[in-house]
Amino acid sequence: MADLNPQQRQLVEQWAAEGASLNQIQDRLRTEWSVTLTYMETRLLIMELGVKIQDKPREKEAAPAPAPAPPQQPAAADVGDDAGGDADVLPPEGEAEPPAGGGELKVTVDEIPPPGALVSGKATFSDGNTIQWFMDQMGRFGMRGPTPGYQPPPQDIPLFQRELDTLLSMRGF
Length: 173
Known about the structure:
Blueprint: H1 6-17, H2 22-33, H3 39-49, E1 106-109, E2 117-124, E3 130-136, E4 141-144, H4 156-170
Antiparallel strand pairs: 1-2, 2-3, 3-4
Helix pairs in contact: 1-2, 2-3
């Protein structure tokens, strides 16, 4: 790895604090100081300096209008535990929505997933019920409710999806 003087190290820290990516730091070292580092050497330098590269905020896409609920629901003991993994979580037509318990949605990721799961965790919905969620090696998603046929409150589903997406992207999924 290249030996940088204190001034160069300070500049690298400043660039990272300004939001520069590893590629940008690598390029600036090459163009401004004629220091050529590989991407891995640049990563090691950043780690050695104890600098944290800031994540770029994800661009939010406009959410499409929700599709109407299908007329039938598959009767299953576990929500989303089918082979396709794409379970519909709206209550069947004619059934009242469960009352919101005034609670808060909370999603967690297990440190060690159960056998057969790539990643797993728990989610507590606003009605106070907790489900287990998981994703297998094929990328199929499933949920197991507290009781057979449990359906999370429909207003919690978009929040659950966003929170789960955020947690999984932070862990590299």
